[in-house]
């Protein structure tokens, strides 16, 4: 049997992928992050599925559940918020399963930063303004950041920054980025992206911290900082330029 790590998406139940929903529907056991995964998604599970909320479980307990389900001959859905590829703590679960020979697969999901960009109605990469997006966080009451990945170092690039797990420490974020981006640099915070209680805050590094504190945002939010957030005057992408050479479609006459 197989363990499936499934990205549940950023919050809205209908943002799980078709593959994710179909996989969930055939798993006899589902382990889900109760505080982060919408309960509406659980209706996709088989009616007799065993549902396990992992909110109060540690890594050993989660691994025990996964292995036991596998040994009982059941496919297992391990439902994570967002996308398993970033800030999901999936790597250590995979390592445990590798050690005991339990097979697994990964079903990607819609990440929080993509839902935040959709809420802002912005493309994060703009021609000649910014073509790089850095996904990161800060070390506070969590695993330390590796050397060279602190905000001061990353900020020197001037790239668009997306910070997860940092809303509670917005003052620190602003203080570390101001020397590199300037007080007038566009900034935004999206909390509960894609959910009914979604909150979008727009401003600059000069005022975004005050907005966050006034709104009481402390969790389930991403902070986005960078010039592409407010870019208006920029050249069209070369992708659709009339000067770009394009191959002829099958059966079409060659371009003069």
TrEMBL record:
Pathway: Cofactor biosynthesis; adenosylcobalamin biosynthesis
Domain of life: Bacteria
Pfam families hit by this protein: TP_methylase
Residue intervals of the Tetrapyrrole methylase domain: 2-208
UniProt xrefs under InterPro entries: 4pyrrol_Mease, Cbl_synth_CobM/CibF, Siro_Cobalamin_biosynth, Uropor_MeTrfase_CS
Keywords for this protein: Cobalamin biosynthesis, Methyltransferase, Transferase
Keyword Nucleotide-binding assigned: no
TM spans (from-to): none
Family statement: Belongs to the precorrin methyltransferase family.
Protein name (database record): Precorrin-4 C(11)-methyltransferase
């Amino acid at each position: 049997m197989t363990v499936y790590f499934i990205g549940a998406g950023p919050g809205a139940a209908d943002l799980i992928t078709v593959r994710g929903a179909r996989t969930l529907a055939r798993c006899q056991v589902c382990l889900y992050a109760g505080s982060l995964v919408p309960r509406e998604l659980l209706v996709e599970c088989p009616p007799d599925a065993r549902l396990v909320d992992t909110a109060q479980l540690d890594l050993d307990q989660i691994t025990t559940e996964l292995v036991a389900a596998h040994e009982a001959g059941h496919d297992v859905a391990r439902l994570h918020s967002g996308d398993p590829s970033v800030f999901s703590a999936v790597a250590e679960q995979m390592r445990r399963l590798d050690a005991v020979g339990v097979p697994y697969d990964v079903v990607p999901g819609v990440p929080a930063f993509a839902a935040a960009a959709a809420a802002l109605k912005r493309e994060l990469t703009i021609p000649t303004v910014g073509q790089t997006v850095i996904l990161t966080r800060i070390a506070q009451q969590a695993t330390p950041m590796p050397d060279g990945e602190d905000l001061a170092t990353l900020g020197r690039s001037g790239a668009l920054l997306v910070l997860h797990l940092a809303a509670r420490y917005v003052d620190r974020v602003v203080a570390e980025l101001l020397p590199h981006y300037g007080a007038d640099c566009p900034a935004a915070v999206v909390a509960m992206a894609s959910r009914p209680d979604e909150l979008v805050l727009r401003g600059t590094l000069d005022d975004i911290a005050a907005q966050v504190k006034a709104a009481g945002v402390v969790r389930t939010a991403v902070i986005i900082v960078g010039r592409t957030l407010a870019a208006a005057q920029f050249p069209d992408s070369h992708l659709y330029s009339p000067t770009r050479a394009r191959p002829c479609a099958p059966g079409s006459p060659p371009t003069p």
